[in-house]
Amino acid sequence: MAKELKYADKASQEMVKRASEENIEIVWDRYETMQPQCGFGSLGICCKICNMGPCRIDPFGEGPQVGVCGANADTIAARNIARMIAGGSAAHSDHGRDIAHTLLMAAKDPNCDYKIKDEEKLKAIAAIYNIKTEGREINEIAKDVALAALEEFGRSEGEVKMASTAPKTRIKLWRGLGIMPRAIDREVVEIMHRTTMGVDADYKNIIKQGMRAALGDGWGGSMIATELSDVLFGSPNPLRSKANLGVLQEDTVNVIVHGHEPTLSDIIAIVSRDEKLIAKAKEKGAKGITLAGICCTANEILMRHGIPLAGSFLQQELAMMTGAVDLMVVDVQCVMPGLSSVANCFHTKLVTTSPKAKILGVDHIEFREEDAVKIATQILETAIDNFPNRNSKKVQIPKDSEQLIAGFTAESVFNFLGGKYRATYRPLNDAIITGRLRGAAAVIGCSNPNFEYEEGHIKMVKELIKNDTLVVTTGCNAVTCAKHGLLKPEAAFEYAGKGLQEICRTVGIPPVLHLGSCVDNSRILRVLTNIVAEGGLGDDISDLPVAGAAPEWMSEKAVAIGFYVVATGVYTMIGHPLPMMGSKNLYKYLTEEIEKETGGKWAFELDPVEAAHKMLKHIDKKRKALKLKPMMYEQAFKPQE
Question: Which of 17, 175, 485, 632 has the fewest CB atoms found within 10 Å of its own CB?
Answer without folding.
Answer: 175
